[in-house]
Amino acid sequence: MAAAVAALAARCCRSRQHRFYLGRFSLRIRYHTPPPPSSSSSASAAHITMASFSRNLLRSAGKANALPAYSRNAIPSSSRFVSLTAEASRPAQEVPASKSEKFKVDLNEDSFKGYKFDVPKLEWETSKDELIHLYAEMVKMRRMEMAADQLYKQKLIRGFCHLAIGQEAVAVGMEAGMKPSDKLITAYRCHPFTVQKGGTIKSVIAELFGREAGISKGKGGSMHMFTPTFFGGNGIVGAQVPVGAGIAFAQQYLNTNDATFAMYGDGASNQGQVFEAYNMAKLWDLPCVFVCENNKYGMGTSAERSSMNTQYYTRGDVIPGIQVNAMDVLAVAAATKHASDFTLGGNGPLLMELVTYRYGGHSLSDPGTTYRTRDEIQTMRSSSDPIQGLKTRMLDWGIVEEAELKKIDKAAKEEVDQAVEEAKQSPQPKEETLWTDIYYPGTEPDWMRGRDRTEIHRYR
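Structure (tokenized):
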């Protein structure tokens, strides 16, 4: 191994740029976790001295400053994330008897962290009705995703399928904080967003089946679902972010007084197009909130292994940012409303990082246990579950009784089960529909065959 480093050093010392890359290579070795002790002392010694070997080789050539001057110690560590507790908020005043009367709730003091930005007040005005609604919506989203899991394993759903079990507070909380006319675009973990932005559970399940009753008429599948205010569901990692900036540009151009929330994951955060979108959005002060949904893993790679700076809300440079405890649906709602108000106030874009956690794998083809421990997953389930957290608070505050919560759970299960059965009854799309919905009506090129329904007979 040392011989390999020596050979690399001999090639790399020809220029300053090459010496920089050798320095980075040495840093990677230095931060690499060494293997367990081996019976071969020579092999162990070679591994331990690889970094120092290359460093000394450079120094002997009079290039002691070739190594970069930064280290992970200069970057905020992952331990400085917002708190991920799901049940630490408390009423700021006596809970009223009326279900519709508003009252204020104090949020956990570690719900937000700001970067060049004044974070929201640690409170959210709510009502008993809203809290019960938020709980019911999260329960339904989880039931829907759990049903999709089982249907996939029964081979009734084909292709890719990415579930959001554990991340329910993100979609439900964002919808609670957004204006109805605000737009949203995200990646492939999109089922709950589809429902929250106007779809139905039946239309989502039918789309997963590839049936006519699907939200995209059976043509989109798991990753491509849309509503009038929801622009998908996109299968290309990070590609939706510049599209989101484009939607915000249209809103600014048309003076609609609406915002766009362009979402992506921690795995997509290192994409060049994400930073290009940042630049254009800030250059034109677009009403765009860039939302990094950080569930700690991009496929099977942890954030710490893929990103030098895992504090994604600080990556906007001149764009301010906020980090949010996204296991607390109330914190998500408060941050989302604050973000919308900020960007619509003429302040330009904002970067919002929602720190959450997925219980399952990246997709249903990933068990999710080869790159993290079962204990880690169970710890998050038991200590930070967004549904259980809100349930505990409502019981403690006397908002509902256990019996009422059981009724909500039962109703959610029945709604999902009925949606599944109705989706199964929906027919498969006809072959002719391959030629429809290709262009927006009225924009089809004159030379394109099959551009309207009167020409579909040619396909037959």
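The first helix runs from residue 2 to 12. Confidence is low (pLDDT under 50) at residues 5-79, 456-460.
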